[in-house]
Specification:
- The protein is α/β, with parallel strands linked by helices.
- 26% of the residues lie in helices and 22% in strands.
- Strand 10 (156-160) and strand 11 (165-169) form a beta hairpin.
- The structure holds zinc ion.
- Residues 66, 68, 151, 170, 192 line the site of zinc ion.
């Protein structure tokens, strides 16, 4: 089965359970991924890419929402194996490229599953050279880059103005990771975030600036189409 069409050039690769990989297919010479999934789902990622009908070598690049292993975990592999350029915000690029040490997740909530998963992230090294370091205000692949630090220092929101879509990584979620059994819009879990309050402040600033969108394509969970911005505003107001 081909990737699930979402809106405009945006598709969602099928079969991935842990986290989402989005394909922006603008045709030959304009094909991009947003995120790469967790290494344990590498074979599923490859199967999903095979079903696109073009070679991964044709990808113009991979845009990373943030450095965590379930999003950037296959970036180094795709670069090595297929020569795909990697793009990430400068702050997370420094960690991915090994120039900076990452902040350790503290996981103080008492949630035992969250604690375990935070330790796994702490112990996992996710590394890749980064070919282009992004900053807020950049536009790549039809996506505006909005720096939204907090979940990680280099977390970004990518806004696709052409389809009024927001690709939010883990800064705004459409399901509770990692099992995504609970679908629905939610804020990042404090145990998985460097600074959840900073992430919330970044979300508030993004929305206060009036950036329009209708669709939320998060790092986890199904697309939320149509009224995503209104729902996000209500969520943020109640936080
Ligand atoms: Zn994350």
């Amino acid at each position: 089965m081909r990737p699930l069409h979402v809106t405009g050039p945006i598709h969602r690769l099928r079969g991935l359970v842990v986290s989402n990989v989005w394909l922006l297919d603008g045709g030959r010479g304009d094909r991009w991924l947003v995120d790469t999934g967790h290494p344990i789902e590498r074979l599923t990622l490859l199967a999903g890419l095979r079903r696109t009908g073009f070679s991964p070598r044709e990808l113009s690049g991979v845009l990373i929402t943030h450095r965590h292993c379930d999003h950037a975990g296959n970036a180094g592999f795709l670069r090595r194996e297929f020569g795909v350029p990697i793009l990430a915000h400068v702050s997370d690029a420094a960690v991915l490229a090994g120039r900076a040490t990452k902040a350790r997740l503290q996981a103080r909530s008492g949630d035992r599953l969250a604690f375990l998963l935070a330790q796994i992230e702490n112990l996992t090294t996710t590394s890749t050279p980064v070919d282009r370091e992004l900053e807020g205000g950049d536009v790549v692949a039809g996506l505006e880059v909005h720096h939204a630090p907090g979940h990680t220092a280099g977390s970004v929101l990518y806004r696709h103005a052409g389809t009024a879509s927001l690709l939010s990584g883990d800064t705004l979620l459409a399901a509770v990771p990692p099992l995504t059994l609970t679908q629905g819009m939610c804020l990042p879990h404090p145990d998985y975030s460097d600074d959840r309050d900073a992430a919330l402040a970044a979300l508030r600033a993004f929305h206060a600036a009036g950036h329009a969108y209708r669709n939320l394509l998060s790092g986890h969970g199904r697309p939320i189409l149509g009224d995503a911005r209104e729902r996000a505003l209500a969520l943020i107001a109640g936080a």
